[in-house]
Automatic annotation (TrEMBL), chain A:
The keyword Cytoplasm applies. Transmembrane segments: none annotated. It holds the Pfam family Proteasome. GO terms for biological process: proteolysis involved in protein catabolic process. Belongs to the peptidase T1B family. InterPro entries: Ntn_hydrolases_N, Proteasome_beta4, Proteasome_bsu_CS, Proteasome_sua/b, Proteasome_suB-type. This is Proteasome subunit beta. It comes from Ceutorhynchus assimilis. SUPFAM superfamilies: N-terminal nucleophile aminohydrolases (Ntn hydrolases). The 26S proteasome consists of a 20S proteasome core and two 19S regulatory subunits. The 20S proteasome core is composed of 28 subunits that are arranged in four stacked rings, resulting in a barrel-shaped structure. The two end rings are each formed by seven alpha subunits, and the two central rings are each formed by seven beta subunits. The catalytic chamber with the active sites is on the inside of the barrel. Non-catalytic component of the proteasome, a multicatalytic proteinase complex which is characterized by its ability to cleave peptides with Arg, Phe, Tyr, Leu, and Glu adjacent to the leaving group at neutral or slightly basic pH. The proteasome has an ATP-dependent proteolytic activity. Keywords: Cytoplasm, Nucleus, Proteasome. GO terms for cellular component: cytoplasm; nucleus; proteasome core complex, beta-subunit complex. The keyword Cytoplasm applies.
UniProtKB/TrEMBL annotation, chain B:
Pfam families: Proteasome. It is found in: Nucleus. The keyword Cytoplasm applies. GO terms for biological process: proteolysis involved in protein catabolic process. It comes from the Eukaryota. This is Proteasome subunit beta type-1. Gene3D superfamilies: Glutamine Phosphoribosylpyrophosphate, subunit 1, domain 1. The lineage of its organism: Eukaryota, Metazoa, Ecdysozoa, Arthropoda, Hexapoda. GO terms for cellular component: cytoplasm; nucleus; proteasome core complex. The 26S proteasome consists of a 20S proteasome core and two 19S regulatory subunits. The 20S proteasome core is composed of 28 subunits that are arranged in four stacked rings, resulting in a barrel-shaped structure. The two end rings are each formed by seven alpha subunits, and the two central rings are each formed by seven beta subunits. The catalytic chamber with the active sites is on the inside of the barrel.
Amino acid sequence: MFSAPPFWQNGPAPGSFYDFPNMQPQVQPNDFRQHTQSPVTTSTSLVAVTYDKGIIIAGDLLASYGSLARYRNCPRIVKVNNNIILGSSGDYADFQYVQNFIEQKVISDECLDDGITLKPKSLYCWLTRILYNRRSKMDPLWNNFIVAGIQDGEPFLGTVDKQGTAYSDKIICTGYGAHIATPMLRDALDNKPQLTQAEARAQVERCMEVLYYRDARSFPKYQLGIIDADQGVSIEGPLQVAQNWSVAHSIKGY
Amino acid sequence: MSLVVKPNFPDYQTAPVQRGFNPYADNGGSVVAIAGDDFVIIGADTRLSAGFSIYTREQNKLFPLSSTTVLGCSGCWCDTLTLTRILKSRMQMYQQEHNKTMSTTACAQMLSTMLYYKRFFPYYISNVLVGLDNDGKGVVYSYDPIGHCEKRTHRAGGSAGALLQPLLDNQIGKKNMLNVKEEPVSQQRALSIIKDVFISAAERDIYTGDSILINIITKDGIKEETFQLRKD
């Protein structure tokens, strides 16, 4: 490579910096920490859709070690209180860490005994801050959270990812579901903007079925969380994906 | 040259994989603003996306800071959420300390300072701040992610910024045209240019589309308007 001589004796070469004489050599810090681990025990997609009076959210019970289906009974759709359901995909340990945190918050709320409970939008906002704070430390919580709830009689569905990117919409799917289930649900909502609970449930079940066929990290055992303005919170499961492999033999070319 | 294709099965690799973490995301979105003598118009598309996924088709990216000031943000959405939340509380603190609302010019300076404060871990946002100045004249301030601030009459920022700015320079700034007379842009013309410009952006930029939210700021307050774009 071409390099020009320095401008003067011991001076900088064109394009490089001047080295001040008698400077102490820069000492590397030895107390540094390496962050940004990769996720270990991971869970796959979540599917959530809003219907006229509430929200349905589904996610399977599998926690994988890479491609190994390691733990096969890991619930990740949980009731927070009477008006919030929390779902998580991504690292299962990070989810449990956040879950413990939230459980303690709910207990503290209860102890005040003032009848005021955590609201969905408050939890959603709080999660945004927690995750953004951790991403700013370059030590993220490797999760995609979905908050489903009823606030002021209206369904609220929001999501936060590991960077703190947050948005709310009528349809939210994470992981592989964002590519496979979101278009299916958007199509369903284009045909009928206000689904009933039964219709929404049918759509979500169809999504779980297709995801089981197409997502190699999925599992046929899943949970269904329903939060309804009238009926409150219910977590159903374990449910089984209705499998039909009768056409599988005709699929060729992969 | 060997014609044998080396198989690649990442799931079956035994070597440890270091998963990189990128604190920033490009969530796309475009903001266009045009200032006139007694008004200013700002428009932002409502698509929030990442890569080839559309997160949501109805995301408001305009943040009213006072009755005469609006901020439009595009870029990294998590930074936008944080910045606008801090801005909102700074506006409230100013209001309560001085018992008056912060002027647009003061907002513009504060935003620049707040962005530069994070010089070495910046908010990755393309900001466009619009409002009426102390004389009631429309102003547009545009920023880079680390706080460089510029006052102008028209600005396109965000994912389609590079696509739209020359068009605005031509249509609003009357650049590169012969025999044109400089005259202030009317509110009606500014509004139709913003709509046209977004239609064009939605054709060429995958991060711009779905619909636009427009804020028209005059001495009478902020008027909101929406306009549908292509949703593919």
